[in-house]
Specification:
Largest sheet: none
Order of helices and strands: HHHHHH
Number of helices: 6
Length: 114
């Protein structure tokens, strides 16, 4: 059950990030209060914050089940998923350095879970 909580928190965090990115791409954000408020309350950004907030609540249960020294580094796997999804969904470049970085992250998390 604890791994389901961890995975759920991570998946919601990933979804939240993509919703925030989608929202900000449609935004005209500038450093003034009116623009910031308008951006925060735009549909994708607002839902992104809500989803990310739900992820944070689930994270509290994860912290109850796992040592922090294991749980927190496991979140770095979201970086790997974000890079992969960004390549396909956002058409961002996929470089050999990104591959090396992702492999190092996965290897590091593997060792922490041992």
């Amino acid at each position: 059950m604890e791994y389901i909580l961890l995975g759920g928190s991570m998946l919601l965090a990933i979804l939240g990030q993509f919703l925030l990115k989608r929202g900000i791409l449609a935004s005209t954000l500038s450093p003034n209060l009116d623009s910031i408020i308008k951006t925060i309350f735009s549909p994708f950004v607002l839902v992104g914050f809500i989803v990310y907030g739900i992820s944070s609540i689930i994270w509290l249960f994860v912290l109850q089940k796992f040592p922090l020294s294991v749980a927190y580094p496991a979140l770095s796997l979201t970086y790997v998923v974000i890079v992969i999804l960004s390549v396909f969904l956002l058409k961002e470049p996929f470089t050999s350095l990104k591959v090396i970085g992702m492999l190092l992250i996965v290897l590091g998390v593997y060792f922490l879970f041992r």
